[in-house]
Specification:
Number of helices of chain A: 22
Order of helices and strands of chain B: HEHEHEEHEHHHHHHHEHHEHEHEHEEE
Shape of chain B: globular
Structural class of chain B: alpha/beta
Oligomer: heterodimer
Shape of chain A: globular
Number of strands of chain B: 12
Number of helices of chain B: 16
Helix content of chain B: 40-55%
Number of strands of chain A: 15
Largest sheet of chain B: 7 strands, mixed
Distance between the termini of chain B: 49 Å
Radius of gyration of chain B: 22 Å
Distance between the termini of chain A: 51 Å
Largest interface: A-B, 57 and 65 residues
Largest sheet of chain A: 7 strands, mixed
Chain lengths: 523, 410
């Protein structure tokens, strides 16, 4: 049974594609929110038991793309059995190669559609503890969504979680017809998706300023439209040209997950448990007077939210306050080498300002060594425990710190080192990697091109000692590879600004390489 | 980059409105055949003993009128909602329309009606029903259409309605949790949405389309809200989606039954015109036009085996097309056609037909039984809304409309 049939992907010879972009591989995004320590922290903050690390967990990355995320989790957690699957054989080929080259015996991949997963018990693990559905659910057909849910219903273990990200109508609604137009134009163009995309983006930009009555569109969509011409075509082809793309709602996804016997736990963001951040004062009373489903729908409408990253659990076991406290008392966060910036922090429904007199000392202190709630209350003795929990959450959300594993092993250190050397070498040669693996974080750590170039030099040549030199080499390499400096998701147009940004990044890279990265066992 | 450029002509605030649920002249066989012809295609054969299916019959007026003015035709009707089916059945029985068969099941049969259909009209269905039923619909349609047959599909577009969907979902959810009768929960839900907007929910306040729709909603009666929004899902579709689904069953796009392109004035949009001129496919052209005018609803006609007329054939066919004036400027009688010999281009015809100034005459002779049926219908005021049957035009018109005067299109 199908819904609206796929309009067909761009490119030639892709009749098997079922509407998905397969003529060019997807980029290899890696998210720090999928670190097992992060997930455990968020689960506890939502009043739920953390992941049970007393036994070997089974981790399934459903629609794993090129497998980088799965490999990072596998490398940092040798006790987790990681399995990824993807419909695109090019992705699976790459994923398998990365796992083999990195020497990850606990990581395997399958080429399979969701329909096959739902019907073929021989594919994939028989029981799953953590299912990751990232960058997938809004891009697959309703038929495949149902198959995915059926698979989860069959394989997810009681107590297991599903982490699902999806694009929302509240931030994407007016992009829907435009994405379809782009797809039609790219199909008519006939070239490979990433080659056709720049011309398609140019035509759309032209249309937006043509007086066509469809415009103006929503502010988020307008921002999206504004970055199209500078977007990485490889990424953008997958983002916009898939034949099944459809923004969803919380109601859609939570109903589907209910069919998999899963219940909504909360967002994956560290601050999602803080209800004061859910809505403005004018809406708080209206929001809180409603049922949980309505609350989430209202939150999304209130902020024109574009993306949700939700956690659902099969078996909603609520911890007592005492159990939550016990877990939080054991929680430690480590600094990520980012100095304090007097800027608001983005939370799912807007921004919150951080008082410098409160947060600057915390950020400075967490770079020195891991902090727990007790440490926070020493730094700010006037704070309540609840204040400390909020501050810890905010530090994590802002990217200053992340929860750490207290029991990482030598095997994890060796595996992440092997994987990182490959990722760094690929990045220097032109791959768009944005993260490395850390056994201490039990997963990913954001890392930029300058930092990877510095690590490559340290591991293979003479280390850099001058940020200027590092920035210059980074600039030369990027230019030679036809790449650009990206700042806040957009390409930096003029060379002087780009160089200046690179110098800042180079200084931070060298700074991090002295203490933060060794401390996190990245180098 | 700014996308805030305004058209030269200042556009009024855009408000997507629900499709009308009463009788629609554009969905009669007479109008549809004429519209296909005006747009340069050989029309489907919709006279004598033809077969037509009406899906999503709502108040049932359209299939009732069609059955009344085409007594030799077999009309088959279905709606997925039981209330609509009951209304239609009662109307049919009251009027004694033996040629109207009502399919009284919530699911669709393998075939739409007992015979292959010459015409299938799908009104307000594909943008409402859940995907599984929609799939059944297109499968049944593919089995049921006679070669040369036409399909007219009306639907709310993603261009017009995608932004409304998240709000509509919340309205329905709030209503589903409300207490009281349907009208009361509708009122509660609408009030709540207004309070959310006033409270600063940016999706509701910042988007002109959404805000205008909420304003419109607040002016409507609770019964209107229930009928148009609470009882129906909102799953807007695009022309590309519908055309693709129709292509899968062998049908190609012919035209828009309501001549909606008359409203597309691209003179102030040279960039859009350039993109449309360069568009490689009709789907791309239609998609661009929808964006150009922010078209909220479509009334697409497809045919199984469409044949384009060449220029000569088109000119001859148009010269034989009889038209009636409805504007009252030249009152006449059916027996004495007005001597209107003004040559008209297809574009002028489209404009006159869309504006309601003219209506096509039926292309076949009026069966003798029609007059008595029409009298019976009118005598009972069965159509409501002041409508009366006009057999010569194969339609119903508001009672205030002057009798049609006849002209030709040349």
């Amino acid at each position: 049974m199908t819904s609206w049939q796929s309009l067909g992907p761009p490119g030639l010879g892709n009749d098997w594609s079922d509407g998905y972009v397969v003529d060019v591989p997807y980029t290899e995004p890696i998210s720090t929110e999928l670190n097992p320590t992060w997930l455990s922290m968020v689960l506890v903050l939502h009043g739920q038991p953390p992941l049970d690390r007393s036994r070997s967990l089974v981790w399934a990355d459903l629609g794993c793309g090129s497998g980088a995320q799965a490999c990072v989790v596998a490398a940092a957690n040798p006790d987790i059995e990681v399995w990824g699957c993807d419909y695109n054989p090019a992705h699976v080929d790459r994923a398998q190669e990365l796992a083999i080259r990195s020497g990850l015996p606990n990581c395997s991949f399958s080429e399979a559609s969701f329909e096959r997963l739902a019907t073929d018990q021989m594919v994939g693990p028989s029981e799953i503890d953590v299912a990751v559905v990232y960058g997938v659910y809004s891009w697959i057909s309703e038929q495949n969504q149902r198959a995915l849910v059926s698979f989860l219903r069959q394989r997810l273990r009681p107590g297991g979680i599903v982490v699902v990200s999806y694009e929302l109508g509240t931030g994407w609604a007016s992009m829907e017809p435009l994405a379809e137009l782009m797809r039609l134009m790219a199909t008519a163009d006939g070239r490979r998706s990433d080659h056709a995309f720049p011309d398609v983006a140019a035509a759309l930009t032209e249309l937006a300023s043509s007086g066509a009555r469809y415009f103006p569109i929503g502010r988020n969509e307008e921002r999206q439209l504004g970055t199209l011409r500078e977007a990485d075509p490889q990424y953008a082809a997958h983002e916009y040209l898939g034949g099944h793309f459809r923004p969803l709602s919380f109601e859609d996804v939570s109903r589907s997950m209910r069919d998999a016997r899963c219940q909504y736990i909360g967002g994956i963001n560290a601050t999602d448990h803080i209800r004061a951040y859910w809505a403005s004062a004018g809406l708080a009373e209206l929001l809180m007077s409603r049922d949980p489903m309505a609350q989430q729908m209202i939150r999304d409408l209130a902020s024109q939210r574009m993306l949700r990253n939700d956690i659902f659990r099969r078996g909603h076991r609520v911890l007592t306050a005492g159990e939550v406290d016990a877990h939080l008392d054991r929680l430690l966060i480590a600094g990520l080498g980012i100095p304090f910036r007097d800027e608001p922090v983005a939370v799912p429904t807007g921004e919150v300002a951080l008082a410098p007199e409160q947060y600057e000392p915390l950020v400075a202190e967490v770079q020195v060594g891991p902090l727990g709630l007790a440490d926070l209350s020493v730094i700010h003795p006037d704070w309540t425990r609840a204040d400390c929990v909020i501050a810890l959450s905010v530090l994590a959300e802002a990217g200053y710190a992340a929860p750490i594993a207290t029991d990482s092993c030598e095997e994890a250190v060796a595996a992440t080192r092997r994987l990182n050397r490959i990722l760094v070498k690929e990045a220097v040669r032109g791959a768009n990697h944005g993260a490395l693996a850390s056994p201490i974080l039990s997963g990913a750590l954001f890392s930029d091109f300058c930092e990877m170039l510095a690590l490559d030099a340290r591991w293979n040549r003479a280390p850099y000692d001058s940020p200027e030199l590092l920035a210059r080499d980074a600039w030369n390499l990027l230019t030679a590879q036809g790449r650009h400096v990206i700042e806040r998701g957009a390409r930096v147009g003029d060379d002087a600004t780009a160089l200046s940004i690179l110098k800042e990044r180079a200084a931070r890279a060298l700074d991090r390489s002295r203490s933060t990265l060794p401390g996190l066992s990245v180098s | 980059m700014s996308t805030t450029a305004q058209p030269v002509e200042s556009a009024p605030p855009y408000v997507p409105r629900p499709e009308p649920t009463g009788f629609r002249r554009e969905l009669t066989p007479t109008w549809l055949a004429a519209s296909v012809l005006v747009d340069g295609h050989r029309p489907p054969q919709l006279h004598g003993r033809f077969h037509a299916a009406y899906l999503g019959c709502t108040t049932g007026l359209t299939p009732v009128v069609v059955a009344a003015v085409h007594p030799e035709a077999q009309i088959w009707a279905w709606d997925w909602r039981p209330t609509e089916i009951r209304i239609l059945r009662e109307l049919r029985d009251e009027l004694g329309l033996d040629n109207l068969e009502v399919h009284e099941r919530p699911f669709l049969p393998t075939m739409l009606g007992p015979e292959l259909q010459d015409l299938v009209v799908i009104e307000g269905v594909v943008d409402t029903i859940e995907p599984g039923l929609r799939h059944e619909l297109f499968t049944s349609l593919g089995r049921s259409l006679r070669p040369g047959g036409a399909v007219c599909i009306t639907y709310r577009t993603t261009v017009g309605w995608a932004e409304i969907v998240p709000v509509h979902r919340l309205v329905r959810h709030i209503a589903s949790r409300g207490h009281g009768n349907a009208n009361e929960v509708a009122t509660t839900a609408c009030d709540f949405i207004a309070r959310l907007r006033d409270g600063g929910a940016t999706y509701l306040a910042d988007r002109p389309v959404v805000s205008a729709w909420i304003d419109e909603l607040l002016t409507k009666s609770p019964a209107h809200v229930v009928h148009h929004y609470l009882d129906r899902e909102l799953r807007p579709a695009s022309h590309a989606q519908v055309a693709h689904a129709m292509a899968a069953i062998g049908c190609s796009f012919v035209n828009q039954a309501d001549f909606a392109d008359v409203e597309v004035d691209l003179s102030a949009m040279p960039i859009v015109r350039g993109l449309i001129d360069r568009a490689a496919t009709h789907v791309l052209r239609e998609s661009l036009k929808d964006l150009a005018v922010r078209r909220a609803t479509r009334m697409d006609v497809f045919m199984l085996g469409a044949q384009s007329l060449d220029e000569h054939e088109h000119r001859v066919a148009l010269s034989n097309l009889s038209l009636a004036r409805l504007d009252g400027a030249q009152p006449g009688t059916n027996d004495a056609p007005a001597p209107d010999r003004v040559p008209r281009s297809p574009s002028e015809l489209r404009r006159l037909l869309r504006s309601g100034q003219m209506h096509p005459y039926r292309m076949d002779a009026i069966p003798p039984a029609v007059t008595s049926i029409a009298r019976a219908v009118d005598a009972r005021s069965a159509l409501g809304n002041g409508l009366r049957i006009v057999p010569e035009l194969g339609t119903a018109l508001p009672a205030r409309t002057s009798d049609p005067s006849k002209g030709t299109s040349s």
